[in-house]
Specification:
Its EC number is 2.1.1.72. It is a single chain. The protein is an alpha/beta fold and 304 residues long. Helix content is 33%, strand content 14%. It contains eleven helices and nine strands. Strands 5-4-3-6-7-9-8 form a seven-stranded mixed sheet, with helices on both faces. Strands 1-2 form a two-stranded antiparallel sheet. The termini are far apart.
C-alpha cells in the first residue's frame, strides 16, 4: 500500500531549466506578492506561520537564478504558489496535509463535491466532523479543508493520540473555497515537475545541490525553552531540531545551493546562522485569542 512518504510524481530526470529572473519578471512577481488576496493560484488553506502576508518582503531576497525549488516545510505553500516553479520538491511532516494536497491534485472535482454539503456556520456539525475520520482519501481531504476553514484561526493541532482537537472558530461567512483559485492551485499541484513528499526536512532536501533554491520556513522556537507555538504535529519541533536545521542549511550553502531560512527574531536563533546574512521581517500576529493583543512581530530571514 502506498504511504504518504511515497507521494511523489514522476519528474523528468533531465537537468532542470535554469530560472533567470529579469527585472520585468521581478516586477511582476512583486505585484503578485502584494496582491495576496486576489492572486491566482494562491494558498487555499490557512496555516499558522504562513508567509502569505510576508511575500512582498521576501521577494527581494530571492536569488537571480536557480534550478529546482525545494520547500521542506510546505504548510500553506505560499512561496510555492507565488513562484509557480516548473521543477519543485514540496514536503511537510504533517501527513494529513500532504495527503490532502495529493488528493486535491488528483481529484479536485471530487474533493470540492465533498465540501458541498458541509456547513462551516454549524457549530454542532463541526464537532461531528471533527470526531469522525473517514477511510476514503477524498472524504478525508474534504474534511481537512472543512476543518481548516471552520476551526479557530485555521489552526492545525493534534493531541498525543494524533487526534485533531482545535475548537470551533465561528467563521464570519459560509464560504469555504474560492473555486476558481482552488482549481488553479490543483492544476499547479498536478504538474509533472512537482515531487510531493511527507518526510523529515533533512530527507526532503537530499537531492538539493548546486544552483537549487531551498526555502526553509520551520515551526518557530522563540527561545531554547521552546516558548512559542510549535505543536503542529504529534512530535514537537524541538530546539535540537532547530540546531539540526541550521546545520542542514549550512551543508546546503556549502554545496552551492541558494538557501533562505525564516525564523524567530532572537539572539539564540541568530547564533545558529553565523555564515548567513540576516534581515528583519515585520508581520502582524494572528494567534492571540484577544484581537487587541495581536500586534506587530519581528521575524528573521537568513539568506546565503
Amino acid at each position: 500500500m502506498r504511504t504518504a512518504s511515497d507521494l511523489v510524481s514522476v519528474v523528468d530526470e533531465a537537468q532542470p531549466t535554469l530560472v533567470d529572473w529579469s527585472k520585468a519578471d521581478r516586477t511582476r512577481l512583486l505585484e503578485r506578492a502584494t496582491t495576496i488576496l486576489s492572486a491566482t493560484p494562491r494558498p487555499f488553506i490557512r496555516w499558522a506561520g504562513s508567509k502569505q502576508r510576508l511575500l512582498s518582503q521576501l521577494v527581494e531576497h530571492l536569488p537571480a537564478t536557480w534550478r529546482t525549488y525545494y520547500e521542506p516545510f510546505a504548510g500553506a505553500a505560499s512561496m510555492y504558489f507565488l513562484l509557480q516553479p516548473s521543477n519543485a520538491h514540496l514536503n511537510d511532516y504533517c501527513q494529513p496535509l500532504v495527503e490532502m494536497y495529493d488528493t486535491v491534485r488528483r481529484e479536485p472535482d471530487a474533493v470540492l463535491a465533498g465540501l458541498s454539503s458541509m456547513d462551516v456556520l454549524d457549530k454542532d456539525f463541526y464537532y461531528e466532523v471533527r470526531k469522525s475520520v473517514p477511510e476514503d482519501p477524498i472524504r478525508r481531504a474534504s474534511r481537512f479543508i472543512y476543518l481548516n476553514r471552520a476551526a479557530w484561526n485555521g489552526l492545525y493541532r493534534v493531541n498525543a493520540r494524533g487526534e485533531f482537537n482545535v475548537p470551533y472558530g465561528k467563521p464570519r461567512s459560509g464560504n469555504i473555497l474560492d473555486e476558481i483559485n482552488f482549481f488553479a492551485a490543483a492544476n499547479l499541484l498536478s504538474k509533472d515537475g512537482l515531487t510531493l513528499t511527507h518526510r523529515d526536512f533533512e530527507d526532503a532536501v537530499v537531492g538539493a545541490g548546486d544552483g537549487d533554491l531551498v526555502f526553509f520556513d520551520p515551526p518557530y522556537a522563540s527561545s531554547k525553552r521552546r516558548e512559542s507555538f510549535v505543536d503542529y504535529n504529534e512530535t514537537l519541533f524541538t530546539w535540537e531540531d532547530q540546531r539540526r536545521l541550521a546545520a542542514c542549511a549550512e551543508r546546503l550553502r556549502r554545496s552551492g545551493a541558494k538557501v533562505i531560512v525564516t525564523n524567530a527574531y532572537n539572539s539564540a536563533i541568530r547564533e545558529l546562522y553565523p555564515t548567513f546574512t540576516e534581515h528583519a521581517l515585520l508581520r502582524r500576529s494572528s494567534l492571540a485569542s484577544d484581537v487587541s493583543l495581536r500586534g506587530s512581530v519581528a521575524e528573521s530571514v537568513f539568506v546565503t
